[in-house]
Inverse folding.
């Protein structure tokens, strides 16, 4: 019941206020710790310290609330900030809306949801990057935290969200050894969710092609949901000079972007709903 309540809250209300959002608190801790990280082992230490600070209370709350008659309500309220689908869909909608105003507006809006430089992207590349972010974040922002909630309870969801936030802030290749532990921890935790997301998005007849396309990206995980969405929509998704997924297909149109949003939204909420029913 707690997972179903959290999904309902996400669909109807979206994100809680920033001052109450645990991911904002995780980001503040990671921002405080980063100047103190000097190398791999100090990165591992401060990563582990943050994991303890945010995960241990979540595990304890889970143990305390589950036996209570109405504990599932509080668990649902606590789970909701640890995943997000509505916000992801709205951000991608805004990229297309901004593109309608002009290329520069589209680039600027895209920069909110991707880490790559957007200043020289054409309109086709803006849509491609938006769809890549949509598919990758279906795994990162919904499937993974809900899967870890199902496996390990509230503490599992909190641990995953912390690890994913740490990777987003510390895990860039240019950070070298300082961010390596955060990047490897996120890679490990995403091994199963990324592949599960790909299987949910991609019809079985395309699975052999999915395996081939997914290996083209530098990331061991991100290529799976991105390739799955490219194949499902019949479009090309690329990062200039790095990879091209489903390269013989055309670039996505505004209609393809809308199709992608409906597909990702439907897959995300149906997956969450079925998982919630299974846990009931």
């Amino acid at each position: 019941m707690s997972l179903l309540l959290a999904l309902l809250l996400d669909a109807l209300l979206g994100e809680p206020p920033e001052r109450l959002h645990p991911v904002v608190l995780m980001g503040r801790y990671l921002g405080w710790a980063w100047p103190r990280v000097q190398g791999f082992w100090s990165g591992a230490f401060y990563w582990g310290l943050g994991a303890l600070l945010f995960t241990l209370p979540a595990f304890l709350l889970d143990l305390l609330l589950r036996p209570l008659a109405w504990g599932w309500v509080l668990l649902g309220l606590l789970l909701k900030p640890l995943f997000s689908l509505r916000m992801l869909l709205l951000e991608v909608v805004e990229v297309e809306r901004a593109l309608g105003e002009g290329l520069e507006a589209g680039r600027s809006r895209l920069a909110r949801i991707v880490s790559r430089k957007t200043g020289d992207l054409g309109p086709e590349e803006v849509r491609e990057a938006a769809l890549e972010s949509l598919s990758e974040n279906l795994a990162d922002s919904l499937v993974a935290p809900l899967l870890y909630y199902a496996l390990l309870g509230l503490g599992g969801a909190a641990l995953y969200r912390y690890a994913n936030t740490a990777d987003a802030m510390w895990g860039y290749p240019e950070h070298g050894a300082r961010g390596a532990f955060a990047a490897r921890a996120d890679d490990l935790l995403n091994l199963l969710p990324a592949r599960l997301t790909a299987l949910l998005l991609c019809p079985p007849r395309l699975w052999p092609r999915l395996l081939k396309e997914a290996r083209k990206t530098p990331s061991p995980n991100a290529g799976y949901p991105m390739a799955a969405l490219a194949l499902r929509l019949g479009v090309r998704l690329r990062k200039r000079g790095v990879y091209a997924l489903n390269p013989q297909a055309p670039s996505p149109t505004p209609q393809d972007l809308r199709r992608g949003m409906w597909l990702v939204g439907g897959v995300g909420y149906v997956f969450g709903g079925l998982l919630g029913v299974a846990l009931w």
